[in-house]
């Protein structure tokens, strides 16, 4: 969801968008304000009020309608080497904490421009939002878009930004996370090797690493995520057209 205040009253310094009990600081862009908010695949169908307020008063409001996503249900099998990773809950907790620290960051500037690009070559092997049962377990949504190819296939930045994380994690394997500003991030997971460093300014199309099968996987592929305010969303939406602020 992109919230835009197109005709703001003059003299505003801070605006916050309120949605489903949470406040989201807005970003000034030219003569208007905007904020991107993520909705996960299990978000309940219905109508939700959205309000934009200043420090002293409500400015504008609207209603968001959420419809059925139509995601498929599938069962997949992973090898024992991947399932064994689930036994180390301390490592999994450290991974969650590291990612939460990154995704809680918010810079009040937009670093991307125009539509994103697909970051690697290959076939889509798992769509975003697919409801998956792994080795007979409960169904849960797939949090990214999987693109499969041979190990060593180059992976590039889908959009410009700054590298927020570049390291080996537990389930995600070798990971690069890019901060695109305004609470928007992309991540590139299960890499065979990493070609970017934390803190590096990066331009769309720059190399970030090489496809691999590190972490919780069944074969070589890129697990590509778009994360908005900590919520994993469909990165393919960013390729289809410009998310215009």
Can you offer a commentary on this structure?
The chain has 245 residues and is mainly beta. 10% of the residues lie in helices and 42% in strands. It contains 3 helices and 20 strands. The protein has helices spanning 80-83, 89-103, 236-240, and strands at residues 2-5, 16-19, 22-25, 27-29, 32-36, 46-53, 58-66, 73-76, 123-126, 131-134, 139-141, 145-148, 154-156, 161-168, 174-179, 184-194, 201-202, 207-211, 221-228, 231-233. The strands form 4 sheets. Strands 9, 12, 13, 14, 15, 16, 17, 18, 19 and 20 form a 10-stranded antiparallel β-sheet that branches. The longest helix has 15 residues, at 89-103. The radius of gyration is 19 Å and the shape is globular. The termini are close together. The model has no long low-confidence stretch (mean pLDDT 93).
Query: Could you give the order of the helices and strands?
Result: EEEEEEEEHHEEEEEEEEEEEEH
* Shape estimate: globular
The profile of the biggest β sheet is:
10 strands, antiparallel
Q: Averaging pLDDT over every residue, what do you get?
A: 93
Fraction of residues in helix: under 10%
User: Segments where pLDDT lies below 50 for 5+ residues?
Assistant: none
Number of E strands: 20
Q: Radius of gyration from the CA trace?
A: 19 Å
- Structural class comes to mainly beta
Beta-strand content estimate: 35-45%
Report the span from N to C terminus.
11 Å
Helix tally equals: 3
């Amino acid at each position: 969801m992109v919230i835009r205040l197109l005709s703001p009253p003059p003299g505003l310094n801070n605006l916050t968008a309120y949605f489903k009990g949470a406040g989201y600081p807005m970003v000034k862009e030219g003569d208007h304000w905007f904020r991107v908010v993520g909705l996960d695949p299990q978000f309940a169908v219905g109508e939700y009020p959205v309000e934009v307020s200043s420090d002293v008063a409500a400015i504008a409001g609207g209603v968001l309608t959420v419809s059925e996503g139509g995601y498929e249900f599938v069962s997949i099998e992973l090898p024992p080497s991947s399932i064994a990773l689930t036994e180390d809950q301390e490592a999994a907790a450290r991974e969650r904490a590291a990612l939460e620290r990154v995704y809680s960051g918010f810079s009040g500037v937009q670093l991307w421009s125009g539509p994103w690009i697909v970051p690697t070559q290959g076939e889509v092997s798992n769509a975003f939002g697919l409801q998956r049962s792994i080795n007979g377990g409960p169904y849960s949504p797939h949090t990214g878009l999987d693109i499969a190819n041979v190990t060593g296939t180059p992976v590039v930045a889908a959009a410009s930004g700054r590298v927020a994380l570049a390291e080996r994690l537990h389930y995600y394997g070798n990971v690069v996370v890019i901060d695109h500003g305004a609470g928007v991030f992309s991540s590139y997971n299960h890499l065979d090797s990493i070609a970017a460093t934390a803190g590096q300014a990066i331009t769309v199309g720059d190399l970030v690493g090489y496809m691999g099968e590190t972490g919780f996987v069944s074969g070589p592929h890129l697990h590509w995520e778009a994360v908005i305010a900590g919520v994993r969303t469909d990165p393919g939406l960013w390729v289809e057209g410009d998310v215009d602020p």
